[in-house]
Amino acid sequence: MKIVRLFEDEMLAYEQEVIRELGLDVTIEVRVSQTEDEIIANAKDADVVIAVYEPLTQRVLESLPNLKLVLYRSIGFNSIDLGYATKKNLPVSHLASYCTDEVANYVLAAILMHNRRLHDFNRSIKVDHKWDYELFPDMRRLSSLTVGLIGFGNIPRLIAQRLQAFGCQVMAYDPFVAEEVFAQAGVEAVALETIFAESDYISSHLPLNEQTKELLDRSLFDLAQKAPVFINSSRGGVVKEADLVAALEDGTISYAILDVVSSEDPDLTTLPFMSMDNVLLTPHIAFYSQEAFLHGVRENMEHIQAFLEKDYAHAGIVNLKGLDLDK
């Protein structure tokens, strides 16, 4: 079985080590492919492709006759035409746990950094040359505040655990999670509108798909009663960017901490957030750690192993319910 990885990193030696350790009868090659045409040319003999953001459109999938499995080296899998893959009976696997600690810690760090105004005090001292401890008289004790989580999967559940140690109230919106899961976590299940109306901090953990694209828009931002801080470490496309800019400009949203924007490769000369003092940007690094990279490689290969053994329930397949893999 031939695996083609569509992006470059430094993990090839470790991938091969894990392949040997698991006893997989596969070979792996790195063929960097960023466009549809490049993928079609470079992966035409692939049984498996490993992707992150590469465009796996219907045209691409139609052009890869040997393809039996798509692996994502990420939690998100929004660059594939999942509907067509399912129609084609093609399993699509993603990583469920490889960077959950990292992203949870990013969100916690973002909240703590803002709550104690570390970035802004540092800027005031070093840039404005002010030594003023009363610069932010509206600072609040974290235990008096409410954090709203949009989504309640693995990452926001870890965030809730961390936040509860600080004593703040945590609420979450996720229509796909059972009430008992919220109850066991000590988190209040609420409507999406309630998140915006009652939260001091809002953190998005939505996947990007047709249902969530630009879901977070002005109609929700306008519900905010507390001028909350908005944090996004999921996918930029779930936010209607122009509406967030407007809400930040008029103070409906007081501050934003964004690890993602609408493009994975934004033009920084035109990105509207660049000139906004109430926006802190990071270049999609919430997932990043050496341990996360190693974890991701191993989880990918374990999913291949489960797939080959027909243990499909443990292969991370996101479209399993729509497939007939016994054909």
UniProtKB/TrEMBL annotation:
GO terms assigned for molecular function: NAD binding; oxidoreductase activity, acting on the CH-OH group of donors, NAD or NADP as acceptor; transcription corepressor activity
Cell division as UniProt keyword: no
InterPro entries xref list: CtBP (IPR043322), D-iso_2-hydroxyacid_DH_PdxB (IPR050418), D-isomer_2_OHA_DH_cat_dom (IPR006139), D-isomer_DH_NAD-bd (IPR006140), NAD(P)-bd_dom_sf (IPR036291)
Entry-linked Pfam families: 2-Hacid_dh (PF00389), 2-Hacid_dh_C (PF02826)
Domain D-isomer specific 2-hydroxyacid dehydrogenase catalytic: 13-310
SUPFAM superfamilies linked: Formate/glycerate dehydrogenase catalytic domain-like (SSF52283), NAD(P)-binding Rossmann-fold domains (SSF51735)
Gene3D superfamilies assigned to the protein according to its UniProt record, in alphabetical order: NAD(P)-binding Rossmann-like Domain
Alphabetically ordered keywords of this record: NAD, Oxidoreductase
Signal sequence residues: none
Residues annotated as domain D-isomer specific 2-hydroxyacid dehydrogenase NAD-binding: 108-286
Origin superkingdom: Bacteria
Family: Belongs to the D-isomer specific 2-hydroxyacid dehydrogenase family.
Record protein name field: C-terminal binding protein
